[in-house]
Amino acid sequence: MNELERHVEKLFRHQPDTPETQELREEILSNLQAKREDLLAQGMDERAATEAAKRDIPSVDGLIDDQQTTNVERYRMACAQTVWLHCILFWIGTLPLLFTGYGWLGTVGLGLSVLSGVGYLLFWLLHPVMQGTRSLAGARRRKSMAWRIWGVFYAVAALSVAAMTFGSNLWYGTPVTIEGPYQWAVMASRFYVPLLTVLIPLTVSRFAALLPQYRVEG
Amino acid sequence: MEEQTIHSDLIRGHIDAILLRILRDGDHYGYGLMKQVLTLSDGQYELKEPSLYTSLKRLEKQGSIESYWGDESQGGRRKYYRITPQGRAQYDEALAQWQWAKEIITKLLGGNDR
Predict the structure, then answer these.
(1) Which structural domains are found in chain B, ordered by start?
(2) Could you report the predicted ipTM of this complex, rounded to two decimals?
């Protein structure tokens, strides 16, 4: 794969794989190649010609129909299933906490799993046939937003836990003492509990990944 | 470069008609059209690729142009565009409108006084 092919590959990385986007991709690549050859023929060196061709088309977002006709009913069901699955994962994730002060989170996990399971079942029973348009770029934006917020949240949470746990040791210059495996587990659990919230951005990511699969051709 | 950015707003609204004019004289693929715009404007106006694709897509949707793939053996296949009778009519219309507007704007801006 040459550099222009890589560039075009990158431009289309987050675009849905449809006949139209494939055609546009082939068209853009052949035009960039033609431009590069033309610049080379005019005496430009290889490096500069490739860069000049790439510079002209920094993004294809505006060129692709972002509004996707979507089978909303099946898409929502897939999303509900994801939520259910992630609630179960959360519950499983809380199991190691049973013998720490966070044991109650297991109950929360179980409750969420049952609730989202019932929700999914209801969707499945009364799914109204529905079609609508959904924005692909919007789904991608929500995904990156969710990850950014979560990243900040976890950084703050981990730092404050660290400050709480080791703050006095730093302040008074005393060594950190961990008395045995139970203490270890307690300390680790403080970092682990906020980490479990990673399932939230994972859910939003999954929503974005599912959307192109429920495209309706038409 | 800056000069071109100022002027390009005036030109942008006419890109469809410019492309139709070029296609009236023969079929072209994307880069060929861009080169032709540069040549016809004596190197003063460079059509950017995003505007090119947006315009081509719109014209094709309207039925003013049609596309077909070339049979290049090496390099990527090229997508060529051909003008339709409707495209020719659209071009004539655009040209007539431009001549009318040009006359009025010249009068209104007092371009003939100087």
Answers:
(1) 2-109 (1.10.10.10)
(2) 0.83
